[in-house]
Design a protein that fits this description.
197 residues; alpha/beta; Helix Hairpins; Chitinase A, domain 3; 2 domains; five-stranded mixed β-sheet; two-stranded parallel ribbon; 20% strand; disordered N terminus
């Protein structure tokens, strides 16, 4: 295993360093609601790109990720008494989080409906909806579960306040939703299918 840090390795989308960086971010940002959704047996819509990324992450975690975790545990164990060994505890905790992520990905894939978003006149899961807020600012949101996140695209979860309010809305409709900051209204200015090419 190389001692080169992820910061010095070029992060191409499919490099081990990029997968490791994404995995570490996913561990820190693990979403309980999505895990519960997957565990409940509900169908989760995934773009083909999101499905591919999950399969790549799963392959990395089950291969190189597990190898790296076991190497860290072995190294920490070599430092002496494991009862008072912070490195050992940290390595075991990281291994536990990784195994939880593996189970989560498997559940998501098992309950996934993988398809391209269709053309529709009303906002649906997989639609990119352009909204105009009360100040006249225009923003685009992809209505989808968090596993469909892509850089540069705002996500509105169908189970969240904005995403739920947008579902079924058509161009010109005004929708209101309640968020921690109060009640907000937006007008739907456009709807198009998400292209994850």
């Amino acid at each position: 295993m190389s001692n080169t840090s992820a910061a010095t390795v070029p992060l191409t989308p499919h490099s081990s360093a990029a997968l490791r960086a994404n995995h570490n971010a996913d561990l820190r940002n693990c979403r309980i609601s999505l895990c519960c959704l997957a565990m409940s047996g509900d169908t989760i819509w995934l773009t083909p790109g999101a499905h591919r990324r999950l399969l790549e992450e799963l392959a990395y975690l089950e291969g190189e990720g597990r190898l790296h975790a076991s190497e860290r545990i072995a190294e920490a164990r070599s430092h002496g008494d494991i009862r008072e060994n912070a490195d050992y505890d940290a390595a075991k905790n990281e291994q536990g989080l990784m195994e939880a992520r593996i189970r989560q990905i498997r559940q998501i894939i098992d309950h996934a409906e993988v398809k391209e978003a269709g053309v529709t006149d009303h906002a649906a899961i997989g639609s990119v909806v352009t909204v105009v807020d009360e100040d006249g600012d225009e923003t685009e949101y992809l209505i989808a579960t968090p596993e469909n996140k892509v850089p540069g695209v705002f996500l509105a979860s169908p189970s969240g306040p904005l995403g739920a309010a947008l579902l079924g809305a058509g161009v010109g409709d005004e929708v209101s939703y309640e968020a921690p900051g109060g009640v907000f209204s937006v007008t739907v200015a456009g709807i198009r299918p998400f292209d994850d090419a």
